[in-house]
Amino acid sequence: MVNENEKTIKQHVQQQFGKNANKYVTSERHAKGDDLALLLGWLPVENTWNVLDIATGGGHVAKLLSPHVQQVVATDLTRPMLVAAAEHLKQAQCTNVLYVVADAEQLPFLDSSFDAVTCRIAAHHFPNPHLFILEAARVLKPGGKLVLIDNVAPTEKALNQFMNTFEAMRDTSHVRCLTVLEWQALAEKAGLQIEQSVMNRKPYNFPVWVMRTTENEEQAKAVEQFISDADPAIRAYFSVHIENENVQTLEIDEWRAMFSKPAQTT
User: Fold this and answer.
1) 249, β-bridge pairs
2) Structure pTM?
3) What sign does the CA torsion over 37, 41, 43, 45 have?
4) What beta strand segments (E) does the chain contain?
């Protein structure tokens, strides 16, 4: 049962991503990140596989995996986002991708349906990440793999609060970046075992990054002011570079991990 607050959050996510759909298709960060090569290197893909890409966004993971597997099911909560992804992949001649409007926390698939599940740079928009992990584990076949890539918050309280605050100021559909320890605990509770993981520092061109999701110049300036006014130690952690009183770049943490669902024993 979805409560009214969660319903409102998800409706806002749909609105935010619906109007910015094409930006995510064309975003260099989303289309060409080095995590795509890592993902393909980690997954022992086979041409018989059925793969689920949760919150596909611009469809970049689906596009990557399409030539290597039997079928990719690309889901997204936002129909216009899914339409944009479908057009993107049609142009790329990805003919084995099925598009399904679906909530990551309540997937419309049977148990043990997929050889692999992927979710890239999306989970910080989910109101209930524990439900997402449980659902991902449920639809995986025994022995199947889950690859999760997302921005993560530091464990230190002040840094954690700062990051989640500026993310919410920049993107009003942001819910929360979890810490690595939180993700590990959720995966363990879902019965998943970690196989691979690596931390990454993601540099951002601030003007480009902030304008991808802000509504207007005033909102963008508020984000910039919040970051500029931060304690020097906090700015140092996020490698904030200010030039001529304008924020030019910053860096945030990203966690890349692959989990496996235990194989059935006889």
Assistant:
1) 205, 241
2) 0.89
3) positive
4) 50-54, 71-76, 97-101, 114-120, 140-151, 193-205, 241-243, 246-260
Query: In CATH, what is the architecture of 4-154+171-202+253-260?
Result: 3-Layer(aba) Sandwich (3.40)
B/e letters for 117-148, b = 16+ CB within 10 Å, e = fewer, are bbbbbbbbbbbbbbbbbbbbbbbbbeebbbbb
Spatial distance between the Cα atoms of 70 and 39, rounded to a whole number of angstroms? 17
What is the domain partition of the chain in residue ranges? 4-154+171-202+253-260
User: Tens digits of per-residue pLDDT, 110-169?
Assistant: 999 999 999 999 999 999 999 999 999 999 999 999 999 999 999 999 999 999 999 999
Please report how many Cα atoms fall inside a 13 Å half-sphere around the Cα of residue 34, on the Cβ side.
8
Can you tell me the distance from the alpha carbon of 255 to that of 238, in angstroms, rounded to the nearest whole number? 15
CA distance 257 to 118: 10
Angle at 125 between CA 215 and CA 241, to 5 degrees: 60
H/E stretch holding 67 reads none
The residues pairing with 196 across neighbouring beta strands, listed in sequence order, are 258
d(CA 241, CA 186): 34
